[in-house]
Amino acid sequence: MRYSHTDRIITLASLCLFFSYIENIIPHPLPFLRLGLANIPLLVSLSYLPFSSFMILAILKAAAGAFASGTLFSLFFLLSLSSSVSSALLMFLSKKILKEKVSIYGISLIGGFTSSAVQIVLSSLYLGRGMMSLFPILSITSLFTCLITAYIAGHFKYENIKTIAYDEEKKERPDYLLLSSLVIPLFLTEMIKTTVLLLILFSLILTISVLIGRKIRPALYIALYSFAIFSSLFTPRGEVLFSIFSLPVTKLSLSDALLRASRLSVEVSLSLLLSRYIKKAGKLSLVVYLSTLRINTYNNTEGRIRDKIRKAIENPDIINVKSSKDKISRFILILVLFLFILSFSLDFSFFQGVL
What we know:
- The protein is an all-alpha fold and 355 residues long.
- It contains 14 helices and 2 strands, in the order H-H-H-H-H-H-H-H-H-E-E-H-H-H-H-H.
- Strands 1-2 form a two-stranded antiparallel sheet.
- The termini are far apart.
């Protein structure tokens, strides 16, 4: 069978998502400490894809990963997209300019450090410049993770990757009503300036998630508040409340940190609640579908982890993957919109003085 260029890009993007799944299985102490296995297909295809296709692959990698994790409609997707595109750009330029003078290890290090730098800089713009203090830690961890990623990529052969064709007629249109029910609250969240209201919203969204059987990720929210409070230590403003290792915790900085962390928590929890029910369309749908084939093959294959991964990459089982038929009720949609509109209204009403 003859495969189109688009087939190969989508296949490589599905590999990025598959490696993200494998990486999630591996225990990591903190949410931001990751091996970066999703970069393996990028490193492997660096010598084979033209610039435009390589950048499309980087965008699909970020979008598919955010969709799978449920953060496609949050600030985390923008961070992931920016870091993915920036690192891919520098990796491609390094390969084309330096050619044989730089090895796959050097390119991996360039991409890893670029990704870390972009994420830290953009995070500091939202959570405060204290986030910049995490850059040395991320740089050290990137040194090891990039070498591991490059080693694995160096043992892959582009020709062995199983390319899977897809049917253009199976594309689905997104549920625009559900999409708008997510976009409107996200917009209103950025307008709310009362931390108490955001915390109430956050609690209600988590409650709804539990009631409809959605999985809660407490580690993510704990990390959000921890990073926000940590960042506030480097921008003291207002009355000193107490000190942590000689660093003063001030009233205004802490209040601002809690506000930003609460906004992010609301956005992420809402995205996790509703994103699963949005019908996918276009290439992103195909990437998720093909990665699901690989994940199912990995889970259904006996033997060592290496053999299971090789089978999923080189010869995935072509089966019918059942899509989720459960749909969130209109009542939940109306309830979510009502809660956000009510909170937004209260924030600009006389209740604001009470809260």
